[in-house]
Design brief:
- The chain is of the alpha+beta class and 457 residues long.
- It has 12 helices and 17 strands.
- Strand 8 (160-168) and strand 9 form a beta hairpin.
- Helix 2 runs antiparallel to helix 4 (84-94), helix 10 (395-410) packs antiparallel against helix 11 and helix 11 (416-426) crosses helix 12.
- The longest helix has 32 residues, at 332-363.
- The termini are far apart.
């Protein structure tokens, strides 16, 4: 949960004092560590967003490939109908703290995936690494239970209750909420519990960066850079405070006629009337310190991006459009990070979700409904993901690529189908397999334009 606050940029909200407040109500000095920074760079979220955009963003969604064409078509259709790209983007952002879970419900016969945060979830696996059960348990107030439809007496609205739910391979068990200070096990809520009979736990547990097989959490994407980001936030906040002070420095009056206490309040632009023996001056600071602070911040920023494998490319330094290969070289550290995420959220998230859908289509008597069609007994054999290129090629790269693929195909090094799919992927076509199907259909139409039997029928 602490890592989640860093990801959301709310880790400083627990500090009670704004950064510009130097003294509390008792006149005591407030250390900088107890003030909320006035500048929040949130570089951790920036790097996570960039990596996830390269993972599941526009033109980066992987296609399902299977030995059975009907299975691949059904799963790709499900990804489109269910908005799976947007859902997995949300899951990858939330899972950057270490783990995330996908819960698949059947509403009627239509599968509905949902993202679950794992702060309150406890998974258990069997010896072969399959989920045995997942338990959800956390504390809620009586008022929250009232809003969820529970009959809670008004005098118990401020009390704290345990919320307890458990998924296993046959049912979802929901227990009656009971007060935190009450001993003993809670009774089962038969009205809210139900038997699904899937034979598997309908939850996909995803570990960030893969993680170990027996551990619930993977590696956090940004934990190593948190201290450096906090240092950068306070540095920029103090630099902004210095610039504000330089615009309106403290005024010092030197005169024997002024009474004890506060000599003067207000800005430096106000007019002064002093006796002949008096004096006034401003406590000014050297403005060169601001440049040194910004230079130090740039070094900290580069260090954070280097630690997190973030994108260190500056858009204002690009004088002309770059080719796809040049973009890959400039974003190479970010690509390395996104490539690791492909294993965690592709092979560890999307593929298990697809296999679960195939399983549900076999165990449910009515099958599963995707769009307007019903699918039964989908075969998950040979199921894999086809990832597109990181950056699409431009016009200057497509022609040499096409010539090289033609030479490889004519020399017997590649099949025509593989060459067509490689070119379609480089050109940014969303579905290379469908493009090859259209090529074959166009060739068949040119070969036999009058009909299948040669007589126009």
């Amino acid at each position: 949960m602490a890592l989640q606050r860093v990801l959301d940029g709310t880790q400083y909200d627990v500090l009670p004092y704004p950064f510009a407040t130097e003294r509390n109500a008792a006149g005591e000095y407030i250390p900088l560590s107890q003030r909320r920074p006035s500048v929040r760079t949130n570089l951790c979220r920036t790097v996570v967003d960039e990596a996830v955009s390269l993972l599941f963003g526009h033109t980066h969604w992987p296609l399902a490939v299977s030995s059975e064409k009907a299975t691949a078509d059904a799963l790709n259709r499900f990804a489109c109908e269910a908005g799976l790209a947007s859902l997995m983007t949300q899951a990858a952002i939330r899972g950057s703290v270490g783990s995330v879970a996908l819960w698949i419900e059947l509403v009627g016969s239509r599968p509905m995936p949902r993202v679950l945060e794992t702060a309150y979830l406890t998974p258990e696996w069997d010896r072969v690494g399959a989920l045995l059960r997942v338990t959800e348990r956390y504390v809620v107030t009586g008022q929250a239970l009232q809003q969820s439809g529970y009959a809670i007496a008004p005098e118990r609205a401020a009390m704290r209750f345990w919320w307890h739910r458990c998924w296993d391979r046959d049912c979802v068990r929901v227990f009656v909420p009971h007060p935190v200070d009450q001993e003993g096990d809670a009774p089962l809520d038969a009205e809210r519990s139900h038997h699904h009979g899937f034979g598997v736990v309908p939850i996909i547990w995803i570990r960030n960066f893969g993680g170990a097989g027996g551990e619930a959490e993977g590696e956090c994407s940004f934990e190593k850079a948190i201290d450096t980001v906090i240092e950068a936030d306070y540095l920029l906040s103090q630099a902004g405070r210095g610039l504000k002070y330089g615009s309106d420095p403290t005024l010092v009056l030197k005169t024997p006629d002024i009474p004890e206490g506060m000599a003067r309040q207000g800005g430096a632009a106000s007019a002064l009337t002093l006796p002949p023996e008096g004096d006034a001056k401003l406590l000014e600071i050297n403005g060169a310190a601001a440049g040194a602070v910004l230079a130090h911040y740039r070094e900290l920023r580069q260090l954070v991006l280097e630690q997190l494998h973030g994108n260190r490319m500056h858009g204002d330094r690009l004088g002309a459009p770059q080719s796809g290969r040049a973009m890959e070289l400039m974003c190479q550290p970010l690509i390395w990070m996104a490539d690791r995420l492909r294993g965690a959220y592709g092979e560890g998230g999307v593929l298990p979700l697809y296999r679960l859908l195939c399983h549900l289509s076999s165990v449910m008597p009515e099958g599963i409904q995707i769009g307007t069609r019903t699918y039964r007994n989908l075969d998950a054999g040979g199921l894999s993901l086809h990832w597109p290129a990181w950056f699409t090629a431009d016009e200057s790269e497509l022609l040499p690529l096409a010539q090289g693929l033609c030479a490889a195909q004519s020399g017997g090094l590649l099949s025509r189908e593989t060459a067509a799919r490689l070119y379609a992927s480089a050109a940014g076509i969303a579905d290379p397999a469908a493009e090859w199907t259209e090529i074959r259909a166009a060739e068949a139409a040119r070969t036999n334009p009058v009909g299948g039997n040669g007589h126009g029928g």
